[in-house]
Design brief:
CATH architecture of the largest domain: 3-Layer(aba) Sandwich
Largest sheet: 4 strands, parallel
Helix content: 40-55%
Strand content: 5-15%
Number of strands: 7
Number of helices: 11
CATH superfamily of the largest domain: HUPs
Oligomer: single chain
Number of domains: 2
Shape: globular
CATH topology of the largest domain: Rossmann fold
Order of helices and strands: HEHEHEHHEHHHHEEHHE
Distance between the termini: 32 Å
Structural class: alpha/beta
Length: 276
């Protein structure tokens, strides 16, 4: 038994001892692995809960529903409207705190209604190396983080997911659309719609790892190295992207030369809050 097997066994034991659990489920790499592990440990005593909101792209909801069905887990889809929070819309440095506070408060009610003992979310060790104000809400509301407790890194989650045959093992990392805005830049339904449509267009151009950061009149595209090289090699593709983004309301479209990286918006934070 290797270290990955040991951590998987530890995770299964943690989940089994919970008795019953509601998983905060987005359809991403981490929450899918957690859901599959909980299903193996608890059977019908696990349910998935997926929040639908203006910050959650429609295609991600469809993916989440498909995967939950394939795992044989009952999924509860509910509405969560972060935009109803004035603090969230102002987009302060701790924006994620207000989002997670609303999300997990609603999940606690859902868990009570369904007689589920524990609520679990999918943070992992890598999340501790970035500025994550949402962790405060998780801790305040008593939400469990089994992947963190079992000592899983992102790479280990991907490796374990591959062993289990999960379709998400190599899926690009997800983040809510609110993460596309610089802190202090107001978040509105119109701006979220702009970003979602811009990213959908890039996805339909066969780009896989991508973000469109919203800087007012400027759209800043982040791609992986393969995507950057492909975009630079095709003037036609660049023109089509520019024209589409222009139709969405962006006057300028730029390509970030460093490419996609987690937490790029955190570069504006003080050193003690910036990613390591």
């Amino acid at each position: 038994m290797d270290e990955l097997d040991n951590k998987s066994a530890r995770l299964k034991d943690l989940l089994s001892k919970m008795g019953s659990v509601l998983i905060a489920y987005s359809g991403g790499v981490d929450s899918t692995f957690l859901l599959a592990s909980a299903k193996a440990a608890l059977g019908a005593r696990v349910k998935a809960a997926t929040a639908v909101s203006p910050t959650f792209p429609a295609w991600e909801k469809e993916d989440a529903e498909k995967i939950a069905r394939s795992l044989g887990v009952e999924q509860i889809v509910f509405e969560s409207n972060e935009l109803a929070s004035e603090q969230f819309c102002k987009n302060p440095e701790n924006r994620c705190y207000y989002c997670k506070q609303e999300l997990f408060t609603k999940l606690k009610k859902i868990a009570e209604q369904n007689g589920l003992a524990v609520i679990a979310e999918a943070s992992n060790l890598d999340d501790l190396g970035d500025y994550r104000p949402g962790r405060k809400a998780v801790e305040e509301l008593g939400i469990r983080s089994p992947l963190l407790e079992a000592g899983f890194s992102k790479a280990e989650i991907r490796a374990a997911s591959k062993r289990l045959g999960l379709p998400t093992w190599d899926k690009p990392s997800l983040a809510c659309l609110a993460s596309r805005f610089p802190y202090g830049s107001e978040i509105t339904p119109e701006k979220l719609d702009q970003v979602e449509k811009a990213e959908d267009f890039l996805r339909h151009q066969a780009f896989r790892v991508l973000r469109v950061r919203h800087h007012g009149d400027v759209a800043r595209i982040e791609l992986d190295q393969e995507g950057i090289e492909r975009l630079l090699a095709s003037q036609d593709l660049r023109q089509r992207i520019y024209a589409h983004f222009r139709s969405l309301g962006f006057l300028y479209t730029s390509l970030d030369l460093l490419g996609y990286r987690t937490g790029s918006m955190n570069l504006t934070l003080p050193p003690q809050k910036s990613p390591n």
